[in-house]
Design goal:
The structure holds three protein chains of three kinds. By secondary structure, chain A is α/β, with parallel strands linked by helices. In chain A, 39% of the residues lie in helices and 24% in strands. Chain C starts with a helix and ends in an 11-residue tail after the last helix. Classes of the chains: A alpha/beta, B mainly alpha, C mainly alpha.
Amino acid sequence: MTPLLEVRNVNKRFGGLLAVSDVSFILNKGEILGLIGPNGAGKTTLFNVVNGVHRCDAGAIALNGRDITGMSPDKVVRLGLARTHQIVQPLNNMSVLENVTVGACFGRERLGLKAARAVAREVLEQVGMDSRANTPARFLTLAGKKRLEVARALAANPTLLLLDEVLAGLNPTEIAQMIELVRSIRDRGIAVFMIEHLMQAVMNLSDRIVVLNFGQKLAEGRPAEVANDPMVIQAYLGDPDIVEKLKDRN
Amino acid sequence: MILRRPFFWLILIFAAAFIYFPVHSHDVPLREDLVLVAIAIILASNLNLMIGYTGYVNFGHIVFYGLGGYIGLYLVSVRGWNLVLAALTAGLAVSLCALVFGLGILRLRGAYFALATIGVLEAVKAFVANFNPWGRSTGMYLSFEAYQTLGGAMRALWIDYYLIVGVMALSLILSLSIKISKFGLGLFAIRENEDAATVLGVNTTVYKAIIYSLSAFLPAVAGALVFYKNAMIDPFVAFEFMLSLEGIVMLMLGGQGSVTGAALGAAMYERLRSTLLTSPKLSDFHLVIAGGLLLIVVLFAPGGLIGWLYRLVPRSREVIE
Amino acid sequence: MIDGLLIGSIYGLAAMGLSLIWGVMNVINLTHGATIALGMFGIYLLYTATGASPYLLLLPVIGGGLILGIVVYWVAIHWVIGRPMLMSLLSTFAINMMIIGTGTAVWSTSPYNVNFNLPGVTVGKYTFTGNHIAAASAAVVIAWALQLFLYHTRPGKAIRAVADNREAAELMGISSTAVLAIAFGIGIALAAASGALVSTLFPFTILSGAVYQLKSFVVTVLAGLGKPFGALVAGVLLGLLEGVVTPFIAVSWIPLIEFGLFVVVLVAFPRGIFGRITA
């Protein structure tokens, strides 16, 4: 079965810094793949390369078997890969509904304005923001803005959703709600590739995990495997029993 | 679907008023006053497409108008073309140039783009001032026969006026239709956050090039029509930097991003300018007053008149485009 | 050609003011041309009143420029610092309109002159007007003084700190508002100084500043913004270019060459010819 996303030997350099170094992994249809690693490990850069914001210096990326290496972000969305940002990027002076409509208009389906608005309303209902449809985006709380990012990406009808630290800055209630949302997205058949620092969430949500450190892939596998990997522990987790401890807390 | 918008019919009525009143009373001075307002509205509303809709500040907007004027006058006066054909050709030619230039300079953001547009304006002015077929720095005069083809100077000028009002109506209709379209939504997304817009699937390179080129078309056509009326053109009146800036002032005054705002700001500023320039005491202070007004708007009401109205009466957002 | 070099140093001086303001607070100062013209008139007024050497009168003009700059900062810039750049472009432009408007009302558009002539210097078969040499020397002296100020005094270092990273500078206890006001004042003072020097070379009106403003844009972009000394060098280069080209091409082509170069550099070298692209 062709993996949904295949990343092979990707390199990305910024001047003297090799931000992503010979990284390869796959992501299967319908799975949640976690991406973890210390700050500065190159996670967001990897996202940027996958979705076309940066061109990789070497390597290849394939979405559903189709080569998307070097494709610009707007074309990548049309092929079914949508993404949220670590620092939220709302379209501030537009309403929540208009924001999501943009996602629907220019996503995989290239809908007309009326159809896009209908899709947008549906998506807003699914994420629970329909009551705030006419609020200008700049008046939302951080949690609201993060939810809006996700809604906007969902409106593009993606097969793969890239979430960049979607839990950062949220309080425990908001985190629980967002985790529920991510699960419901996967339940609808959309694969999720998520960067997260919150170990508990990542370990519980992800089907598999990729670990990055200094731009290189340290490990790839099921959460338990990764958590027990001595290299990962040494570089990042610190505690060999972390998986057990996290499971208990859950 | 645009026909269902009440605002569309408002535009038509507005344009009709421009024609009805001076014709009804055969009032040439009134026509001359109104034509200045119409020209201001054409320039401001097309500039609005770049500044208000897309968020790209074009400081050299007047270059389209001036080039259109030159091409139009040349075709009519030297080549004996029909006015309408010449004006349309001028519009198309300038849009095409804008497309080509735009692809180059639209890679720049913010202030760099603004400066590049000034560079383009000044470069074109300098080029035209050296261009022999167009009279270099003395410019060109309209040949005497040019008015005869339309039945003499008086009749020609009335026809020219109708055409200018038509272009004004088209400018407003263009603004409205873009605003309510998917293309417009993409432009607004670019204005709000260009990088996010790309990630959301908007082909920003193509969109920017298209709107830049579109924003050139009607001002170029208008330029051809206006300089036909003026019967002469030279690089200094065609490419007056001040006019470019006044376009921006009009947008700020009325409220950038809204169709009504552009028209309102243009009309208000034009009336203010005319009043000041014709009053013997105040004419020197036209710049001072205009500058002061601009400063007040920028500091206290950057959304302009319409922005202020939207804040005062939120429901007005849905009615006034 | 040497004349071009000498004029170029004035272009550079003018551009330095623009570049400094741009680099420190990301504001493109559209009052630049008007303040250059004010510098011209400043010298004219002081010279007709006192008869002292214009080069001495540079000092009060620079002082006046500094004060004017601080006032303009408070009126037009301070309130729009955080906002999109269009706002500061427009607010400075508004002030520009007001200055030009008042200037036209007071001085009309007939040319003025500062009749002060230094003896020329003759080397071989070339004669260099004394005024040109003095102006260029003054420009270099001022630039050198600016260098000393920015790199060897506390306020100067504060300005560079704010230019580099405003938040960090504030965290270090630097009042960024004061720094920005002073930096703006210095930028205006530089513009006024260049205008003052020009007044000794050519006849002028309140509108004469516009040409220098455009040249300042070209120079600043060539040098890469925020690099005042690059601006001085680029200004000299521009002057040289003009001097070299003039004998061969009609003067009317020069704006085309300059603006063509301007647009090309903007598009092709976003950090200026001297800038390095750091990824």
